[in-house]
Amino acid sequence: MDDIKLIENELYSYIPDNETLEKNLIDSMAYSLKAGGKRIRPRLVLEFYRLIGDNEAVALPFGCALEMIHTYSLIHDDLPCMDDDDMRRGKPSNHKVFGEDIALLAGDALQSLAFEIMTSPAAVKLAGAEAACKCVNILASYCGALGMVGGQVIDLENESKSAPLEVIREMDIKKTGGLIKAACEMGCALGKASEEQMKAATLFGENIGISFQIMDDILDVTSSAETLGKPIGSDIDNDKTNYVSLLGIDRCRELVDELTDEALKALDVFDADTSALKKMALELSKREK
Amino acid sequence: MDDIKLIENELYSYIPDNETLEKNLIDSMAYSLKAGGKRIRPRLVLEFYRLIGDNEAVALPFGCALEMIHTYSLIHDDLPCMDDDDMRRGKPSNHKVFGEDIALLAGDALQSLAFEIMTSPAAVKLAGAEAACKCVNILASYCGALGMVGGQVIDLENESKSAPLEVIREMDIKKTGGLIKAACEMGCALGKASEEQMKAATLFGENIGISFQIMDDILDVTSSAETLGKPIGSDIDNDKTNYVSLLGIDRCRELVDELTDEALKALDVFDADTSALKKMALELSKREK
Fold first, then answer.
1. Closest-approach residue (CA) in chain A for B141
2. What is the pLDDT of residue A236?
3. Beta carbons of A24 and B157 less than 8 Å apart
4. Closest-CA residue to A32 (of A81, A67, A80)
5. B289 pLDDT band (50/70/90 cuts)?
6. Residue A193 contacts by C-beta under 8 Å, 6 or more apart in sequence?
7. Chain A: residue nearest B19 by CA?
8. ipTM metric
9. Element (H, E) at B104
10. Of B29, B104, B157, which is closest to A79 when you measure between CB atoms?
């Protein structure tokens, strides 16, 4: 079974039974969890765990928890008071189907569910209580006020064109990089990694995180230029400052390669076969959507 | 130092430094955390812990985590897509001061912060990793889809006058009782309570939780009748069904006393002095706001 299937099987097993008074809420949570995606974050948890540990069942609940946090953030991001997006992954966004109130609450409940899963008796038995606590702490801090949510606030306030590169970098490290770093570190924590290995995972995650965001910014420009039949690069004049508007597409493509190289180099401290992680990093740097 | 002061000192110590790019977010979190209240939930964590344990520093971070979850739920509850309340505890509600986007994100970040605090190295060292995991699991499940958030969904969908008492009871147990039960159980888990003690804590929490909500419903009617100069009970014709609209004020007052008696009886399994908990339960049943 491939990893995406493995992850999705486990992920869907955590959706509560909807034969309750909260049917609508649970259907709303399931709708967004089942909306697809590349499942990058849980795959990173699995791959980092595999560098050190030998029972991937240990890592699966934690990968699924991370995907729940990611899913909650997408639901809240699409709400009218945030990005006000009607569509997500080719389907109506959560609040367009279930209403704003249920979408808000589905996001809230997905965040709780993430922490519930990581500390279930089954997950704690597999991972050990110390490692489970460590993972909760890693994920909670990377998704909170000084992590993902903080990055969203920097993004909201980045309405002017004048934000300097350092601000954009901090925003990307927090908003996009937060959960990616959390994934790498959680995989390591579950495998009881050394301090040196943990640092390497952080470095890998940080570089992949920024690179991932820059690729998103590039794809935003190239795909909208394609749609509109304009020459690529002619409409990098977005509402907000980002790497592409500051540095241009060509320099950004170079940067993605440089960051990916940095990430790959960080893996040298692991004795294990890192080829799956390397393949994943390269695929992300060459993706077309 | 009284318990409220003790709790607030610790609570405020967890607010991140606001000298960051996310200043607005952190100020918004602090605004609602500092808005006062009776701090009932953290006080219950402390009191249950004290029945068994002897170092209250163990219980404080967990009580504060619970207060953060309670605070996030109030912020999200007041949003325009939910109850659309402009005021909370005599002050403008969070989104009236900081805007809907920041209020939404402050709620999200407070939820994360709760789980971060319970698994900080300091909290885990004091409580032990097993107990910390147990508390995260208790709190996450009582605040999630089948707990507090589930209760809010039942409330949202309770627009008709026809909801039967069983539905109202389930809504109150989940929406209001969820965090109160969590408080009692977390205090016990931290003190390494026996199974019998844990069951007693759940029973105490459930009875106090329903009683607390019925008191709220009674106060809603009596205070609005007072304001309008009408005879008490003449305007129990609220938008939504609740205990008061179904059973009348007099029966509800009796019910509060019965539930409080049940709660107090549950405490008999503890060898320790339960007078502080009894006093708290009685105060809640006689409160006037």
1. A116
2. 47
3. yes
4. A67
5. confident
6. A52, A201
7. A146
8. 0.96
9. helix B100-118
10. B104
